[in-house]
């Protein structure tokens, strides 16, 4: 089994986009990338726009190889509206009927409408597929963070290589996991490699240190129970001091970032935004409301400080 992170915080953008190849079964997971609208009172720096362009290009390139596309939920750093990413493929996406009329529900409705008659589209939750090379299994709805979070739910995907026995679990935005229910589910999946969002330490002043510690404890319990390797990225890397904050995890020798998994140095550009702007001309005081919108390439909203011409990338239709 070949697992290749395509875009991530440690690669400069908000994303957990991943490509998994297991024989003739080729899966693209969460094919989206975005930028944080404001951090430290600052908009994205030029380096972030360039990272977004490169990420979108990688995602589109690997989409051309994929036979299956998986969408864990409808936050805009986890999918793109571009129908070309999905056309002609088997697509498992979070069930839109569970989402109501909020932001995720509206985005889900737009995506499902765009994909009508273009692909083999089905609700992901609980779905299974077996091929000669591997077995795919989607989870039931899991909390996007702590139990009862207003952020809703996500769907995890387990990919099992029938030949080697390797088990890859992509658990997206479970944030640690913060939920003991999610921790128990992940242990039952017996991953050999687990990819998930870490605790959102950049929000620690709001959610409290005890919540972050709970996420760390849960992940340590999963590692102890399964002996798995872990790719920890996304929310965890938005804190400037993430290396020190998650020292207990790095000390296991089992945990790395998406960049580290690829043999690269971490480039958490959002966490470094103040340094990126240092010495440059004062940044603009306003930004478009969204940096990823339901347009044909789904990258960012147009506006006075639009960078679509340089950051779009990856147009696959």
CATH topology: Metallo-beta-lactamase, Chain A
User: Unreliable runs, pLDDT <50, ≥5 residues?
Assistant: 288-311, 313-317
Main sheet summary = 7 strands, mixed
How large is the radius of gyration?
A: 18 Å
Helix content: 25-40%
Instruction: Specify the number of helices.
Output: 10
Range of strand content: 15-25%
CATH C-level class: Alpha Beta
| Order of neighbouring strands in the sheet with most strands | 7-8-11-12-13-14-15
Instruction: Output mean pLDDT.
Output: 90
Can you lay out the helices and strands and say which pair or pack?
Layout: E1 2-5, E2 18-22, E3 25-29, H1 46-63, E4 68-71, E5 90-93, H2 103-115, E6 120-123, E7 128-130, E8 134-138, E9 142-143, E10 153-154, E11 157-161, E12 167-170, H3 180-189, E13 193-197, H4 204-207, H5 209-226, E14 229-233, H6 242-245, H7 247-250, E15 255-256, H8 258-261, H9 273-277, H10 308-311
Parallel strand pairs: 3-4, 4-5, 5-6, 12-13, 13-14, 14-15
Antiparallel strand pairs: 1-2, 2-3, 7-8, 8-11, 9-10, 11-12
Helix pairs in contact: 3-5
Feature tags:
317 residues, alpha/beta, Metallo-beta-lactamase, Chain A, seven-stranded mixed beta sheet, six-stranded mixed beta sheet, 26% helix, globular
């Amino acid at each position: 089994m070949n697992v290749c992170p395509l875009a991530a915080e440690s690669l400069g953008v908000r994303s957990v986009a991943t490509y998994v190849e297991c024989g003739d079964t080729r899966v693209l997971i969460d094919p989206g990338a975005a930028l944080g609208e404001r951090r430290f009172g600052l908009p994205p720096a030029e380096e972030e726009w360039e990272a977004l362009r490169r990420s979108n290009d990688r995602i589109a390139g690997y989409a051309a190889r994929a036979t299956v596309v998986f969408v864990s939920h409808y936050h805009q750093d986890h999918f793109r509206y571009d129908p070309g990413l999905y056309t002609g493929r088997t697509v498992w996406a979070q069930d839109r009927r569970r989402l109501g009329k909020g932001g995720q529900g509206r985005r889900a409705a737009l995506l499902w409408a765009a994909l009508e008659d273009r692909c083999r589209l089905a609700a992901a939750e609980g779905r299974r597929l077996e091929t000669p090379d591997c077995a795919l299994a989607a989870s039931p709805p899991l909390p996007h963070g702590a139990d009862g979070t207003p952020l809703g739910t996500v769907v995890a995907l387990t990919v099992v290589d029938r030949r080697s026995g390797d088990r890859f679990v992509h658990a997206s935005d479970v944030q640690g996991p913060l939920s003991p229910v999610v921790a128990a589910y992940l242990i039952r999946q017996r991953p050999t490699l687990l990819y998930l969002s870490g605790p959102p330490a950049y929000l620690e002043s709001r959610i409290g240190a005890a919540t972050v510690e709970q996420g760390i404890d849960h992940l340590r319990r999963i590692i102890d129970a399964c002996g798995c390797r872990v790719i920890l990225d996304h929310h965890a890397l938005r804190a400037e001091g993430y290396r020190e904050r998650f020292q207990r995890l790095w000390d296991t020798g089992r945990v790395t970032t998406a960049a580290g998994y690829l043999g690269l140095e971490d480039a958490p550009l959002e966490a470094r935004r103040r340094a990126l702007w240092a010495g440059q001309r004062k940044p603009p005081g306003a930004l478009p409301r969204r940096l990823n919108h339901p347009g044909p390439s789904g990258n960012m909203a147009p506006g006075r400080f639009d960078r679509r011409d340089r950051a779009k990338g990856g147009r696959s239709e």
